[in-house]
Amino acid sequence: MLRLPHNTALIIIDVQQGMDHPKWGPRNNPEAEQRIAALLAAWRVTGRPVFHVQHLSTFEDSPLRPSLPGCALKECARPLPGEPLFQKNVNSAFIGTRLESALRERGIRTIAIAGLTTPHCISTSVRMAGNLSFEVYLPADACAAFDLTGPDGTHYPAEVIHRVSLATLHGEFATVVDSQALLDALQPY
Fold it and tell me: Where in the sequence is the domain holding 61, given as residue range(s)?
């Protein structure tokens, strides 16, 4: 059974209102936010550290631009007082933020990452965290993807994008689990 150190951090990335914009197209895993909320609640109850990340897009057509309501974090993922919020404008939660130094200052070596979207900010942040020597857990059911079209015009459904993205991360950059495995691992030793 998986056991997590007491200082394992939960990092919630880009769970923002603008992710519901129709511009993104069809999405898989409509329960992702519910799973994220359950993880967040469990982390808080057990007194483990929580970090939030918000995307501030610099693209004119993005629903995540700071001047638009879509930039706001969803209710299920808003920080409580004392939970740091890092703002970024690139895919990685580690570039242009103090996230890495905040983790290291607290002696955190193990992290769980959840949020949106699997092939973009989640994948980029997980890869970077792995390269920075953090032990990373990625709950597959606490992230989601949208349909994508390849450069040759081939359409890829969101579920395929999600599963392939997870496959490229598991075993090299992170351990992919489901959220229940993480919830079970939070139980006292």
Answer: 9-185
